Amino acid sequence: MLKFLERTxxxxxxxxxxxxxxxxxxxxxxxxxxxTRVFLTANNFFNIILATATFGILAIGATxxxxxxxxxxSLGSVLGLASVTGAALVVTLEMPWYFAIVGALAAGTAxxxxxxxxxxxxxxxxxxxxxxxxxxxxxxxxIISSGRGIYGLxxxxxxxxxxxxxxVPTPVFILAAVALVSHYVLAHTPFGHHTLALGDNESAARxxxxxxxxxxxxxxxxxxxxxxxxxxxxTARVNTGDPTAGLNYELLAITAAIIGGTNLxxxxxxxxxxxxxxxxxxxxxxxxxxxxxxxxYQQMAIGAVxxxxxxxxxxxxxxxxxx
Amino acid sequence: xxxxxxxxxxKNFGAVRVLNGVDLNVSAGEVVGLVGDxxxxxxxxxxxxxxxxxIDRGKVAFDGKDITGSEPGARRDLGIEMIYQDLALxxxxxxxxxxxxxxxxxxxxxxxxxxxxxxxxIDAEARLMLDRLGVHVPGIDIPVGMLSGGQQQTxxxxxxxxxxxxxxxMDEPTAALAVREVESVLKLIGQMKEDGIATILISHRxxxxxxxxxxxxxxxRGDVIADLNRxxxxxxxxxxxxxGANG
Lengths: 323, 247
Hints:
The complex is a heterodimer of chains A (323) and B (247). By secondary structure, chain A is mainly alpha-helical. Helices cover 74% and strands 1% of the residues of chain A. Chain A has a two-stranded antiparallel sheet. Chain B is α/β, with parallel strands linked by helices and 247 residues long. In chain B, the strands form three sheets. In chain B, strands 6-9-10-3-11-12 form a six-stranded mixed β-sheet, sandwiched between helices. Chain B has a four-stranded antiparallel β-sheet with strand order 2-1-4-5, with helices on one face. Chain B has a two-stranded antiparallel ribbon with strand order 7-8. The chains are: A mainly alpha (323), B alpha/beta (247).
């Protein structure tokens, strides 16, 4: 078990934090009419996973990019862009339902490709490029939708967000599938090995024949694709292409990846760890909601968790270098 | 018969000419010492051979093939390996993965899923390689960054030798090592020579160069100004070429 945790970079601390949070929420959340704690109901469990699915998929994108010593701050905005693009094609332009999928995924991937192109060709720091894209994608989403939600998607699309095959919400299946494929790619393929090596020591990766430029380009496209998938789920869940969808989600996604053991400076990261991190954020948010903590305070809590996670990581790596 | 042939190699960085038309031949199994002052162009010349830098004029031929325009990966496949001064290792990845970095063997998982890195084969072959070279590390599954400088250097050499290279270029392989570790690196070079591997050794430590190399080439301001046989020269002559007292 310990060996498995080490190999997958899942931290015992993060499992402990998750367990601790669950206990706290179970004890302190209000009770239902029948006396059980609200937090512990099956319905609430699905609420958590549903909420986690959207930014959990974003966090997978963040993991790929950060593991290669990059960053993608545009994740939340690209989610919004993907949401309205898919909805506009189907609702406004009356195209067949599957254009909601094609449009969302294509919009996300294209935004990622633009990020990747400018980072690799223009040698502009990823921080700046994706910060710029954060503004551009959000603006574009508002322009496409004239600033209003695009309502009324066909049932086939809604299935992806609202159906419950075998009692389990569809987004949970999508999250699981995306996470499994991503884990395979990052942990078990040459592409994944090169991603970590690139984040660890770029000149080493280049010297051993890794096509660094192509690798980075693909990583930003993956990140964009994840934002596209998350945008699609968002649209399907609320039956709306929402230009404000995913606002501040990059904060959640990056925090989940960092808590999950991804090294902010590259070279280390795992999808399984990120999923634990995403669950921590999901439980935290859900618990604060149940305890009727105002959204303003929740924002502060999430921001504080991000800073604390990186701070702890710094303390740990200083400890590692000391001996 | 030369395995490596450089003719008229020129390289400029902006207005600065670093290599000034270099000619150099190296034969199979030959150990050539490349010496020169800082800024003489040694590292630039070597990176021109490995393909990290593309040259502005001249020709690089390896094993009878013109490789002037080839990518580093293609040259590596032909059998050119370089061990870098700044240790091109990925510190957070484990020893075995570092040895196979960029050339991970893959298989199909359950016979279905493609491109599955064969980690057990990587581990087994890495262990075999280190044993054969007599390299001792605490474990092949620990991050390379946890090892000492000498151990990291031997990992870098092991990586270079794993894929049966024909030419190995070593850039200051002994600079950061303890005396005992230097001996084992020089012994490794001797072992490689017997296997017919050509070696170019860049070093400031003339003792090491004289011990390991049969031939010594002196680079000065981008020119080869001396190509000496070890048995016909001595340290003071080499030093005088390096500092420019001989022209």
